[in-house]
Amino acid sequence: MPAFTETQCQQQLDKYLQAEERILAGQSYTIKGRTFTRADLEAVQQGIKLWSKRLNRARRGGMRIAYR
Known about the structure:
The chain has helices at 6-24, 41-60, and strands at 29-31, 34-36. Helix 1 runs antiparallel to helix 2. The protein has one domain.
């Protein structure tokens, strides 16, 4: 079972995408008590990457381990 559900991942990703839009429009945004401003764009984009990976993993049903 994945650590996060697909729904949880999608919700978090949506929050980060909204934050990115607002930062790019010159606004600040707060996620979980942390305020992001234009200077924090990189941190928000890292969050987008993280939650995108987690969402893809949840859609596949969890982590995959390759055996050699």
